[in-house]
Design goal:
single chain; mainly alpha; 3-stranded antiparallel beta sheet; 14 helices; 3 strands
Length: 295
């Protein structure tokens, strides 16, 4: 086993302990909170006590400060539709309901404005913007949509986008002779193999996420690199078999190995083909992947 593989394997927590071991890598942020324990959508007209309780619960689950809690909760409420388009957001009311200062409210609304969720105008105030204005590539919005009423659409759209991005990245990556990155890709495959043998899904998913991120970097296209966060978000968002690429299976592992081998051989067509097969491991994916045209 390579030094890198040994380091990652020993750094991961014991499979069955449920506890973080010394030197453990940071867990994926989206994987820490099971779906049943996540903050559910709440209406703006919910009792003040419920809103306050939800805000405090979010802090415990996600390790966010007051500012992060408020961004999280308001973002979820907007994306879920509880705060509809053109709904006015009164800072004083928000501060009272969530028991936070004007500064926290103001900074939180600025973050949401940067994401395209709200707009602030003189003499009009702050209002919720329509979906067409949202930055749908923002990783927070991807998460909020994936766990809200739009979950099916979000997961389908992510798969379709990955189908567009990753096979192209795999083909381009074969033309770049960065041996250091290619060695690291092989290390990730080795780590996934050992994790699969030990039933360690956490280590497997981490190595899988890094594999896909490295591959996009190896493509040598800076615009594609800017989209790598979408792939990471797709791998980190759990809750459905449509994201089976990061689940420990022999089939998934073999496809990753084929991609790495094709890249090492400079076989762009083979790398692209193996990536397409990897992304269609599960029947659920085949329903949203465009069928090849007949000539």
């Amino acid at each position: 086993m390579s030094t890198l593989a040994h380091t990652m394997m020993t750094a991961a927590r014991p499979v069955d302990s449920g506890l973080a071991g010394p030197g453990e890598l940071d867990r994926y942020p989206y994987g820490d909170t099971p779906g049943a324990d996540r903050v559910g959508p709440l209406g703006w007209d919910s009792p003040e006590s419920d809103l306050g309780r939800v805000g405090r619960r979010a802090a415990g689950n996600r390790g966010r400060g007051l500012h992060g809690q408020l961004v999280q909760q308001l973002g979820q409420m907007i994306v879920s539709g509880d705060l509809g388009a053109d709904r006015p957001l009164v800072p004083e009311e928000i501060g009272q309901r969530f028991e936070v200062s004007r500064t926290v409210v103001r900074e939180s609304l600025r973050v949401l404005e940067a994401k395209g969720l709200v707009s602030a105008r003189p003499n009009v105030g702050t209002r919720v913007r329509p979906v067409s204005d949202w930055n749908l590539l923002d990783q927070d919005i991807i998460e909020w949509r994936a766990f809200g009423p739009q979950r099916d659409d979000q997961r389908r759209e992510l798969v379709e986008l990955r189908w567009t991005i990753e096979p192209l990245a795999a083909r381009l990556a074969a033309g770049h002779g960065r041996e250091d990155v290619q060695r690291r890709l092989c290390d990730m495959v080795e780590i996934m193999g050992h994790a699969l043998a030990q039933g360690d899904s956490l280590t497997f998913s981490r190595a899988d996420a890094e594999f896909h991120s490295l591959l996009i970097q190896l493509a040598g296209n800076r615009m594609l690199e800017h989209l790598s966060g979408i792939v990471s978000a797709a791998l980190q968002v759990s809750g459905g078999p449509i994201f089976g690429c990061d689940r420990p299976t022999d089939v998934s592992l073999s496809h990753h190995a084929r991609i790495a081998d094709a890249l090492a051989a400079g076989d762009g067509q083979g790398a692209e083909s193996a990536m397409r097969q990897l992304l269609t491991v599960h029947p659920e994916v085949e329903r949203v992947v465009p069928a090849p045209r007949e000539h």
